[in-house]
Amino acid sequence: MKNLVKLGVAALMTIITMTINAQNKESEKSILWEVTGNGLSKPSYIAGTFHIMCSKDFEMKSKVVKALENSENFVMEINYTDPKEMTALQGMFKSDKKLSDQLSPNEANELDKILASYGTNLKNMDSSSSQALYALISMKAVPCPQTEIKSYEIELLQTALKSKKNIGGLEKVEDQLTSINTAYNLKDVIQQLKMGKEYEILLQGMISAFKKEDLQTVYDLFKNDKFMNSKQEKAMLTDRNKNWAEKMPEMMKKESSFFAVGGAHLMGNNGIIQLLRSKGYSVKPISSL
């Protein structure tokens, strides 16, 4: 009888623990997070963004706009208002070495066939960089014309400029290029191009989760080992997150800052939220402002 009672208590405690964990996970759902403590005189904010989506899926929540209004600085992954950075960004998609010169005849022929499904061919893309090829994946995965595509960062940037906020960036184009090159060489990119249809399904899943403010699911989908191995995750997420988390304290210390970065960068043990918490900051999800 005593054993039955013990088993009953253990089962009850397990159910309670599971319920609390589920509630905690639910309460942690938000695209907007407030950073306080550790000597900050004013709160700062982190918004998880989605780089591109169709206008029908786009929504700028009022709490995000209010948080931006309450901040003095607007900080993106890259400062799109810096002419030097924009020049570097344009150069990122061009290459001095032709793609066909980096491939065997059979590989070049295969790439040409793959590119046909993206509405182009190797001849048109031959002077492009592997980053330009990689960009084709996301553009094709978005199920609407380019005229109907919205960028969360650009929409926020336009609001920040109207309010005359200070604009900054967490990394340079050169830094981002180094990360991409470390993660994906040309042959890696070609393998990714082959999964075009699967990327369409992936993107829709990520957008659905983002609209529910479920950044944990966005993160889990983004780092799915079908699309990203451990080396690529380290280059694209972990290393960049750590670099950003080292720069953010100084920006927050000087003035209240609003950071807008891809939603997948926030979650996980090496995500921005956990990294800032480990530095002594309080980082909590915001449901409304």
Automatic annotation (TrEMBL):
Signal peptide extent: 1-22
Highest taxon above the source species: Bacteria
Pfam hit, one: TraB_PrgY_gumN
Alphabetized UniProt keyword annotations: Glycoprotein, Hydrolase, Membrane, Metal-binding, Metalloprotease, Protease, Signal, Transmembrane, Transmembrane helix
CDD domains: Tiki (cd14789)
Topology versus the membrane: Single-pass type I membrane protein
InterPro entries: TIKI1/2-like, TraB/PrgY/GumN_fam
Cofactor list: Mn(2+); Co(2+)
Subcellular location: Membrane
PANTHER family (UniProt xref): METALLOPROTEASE TIKI, METALLOPROTEASE TIKI HOMOLOG
Name by which UniProt lists this protein: TraB/GumN family protein
Taxonomic placement: Bacteria, Pseudomonadati, Bacteroidota, Flavobacteriia, Flavobacteriales
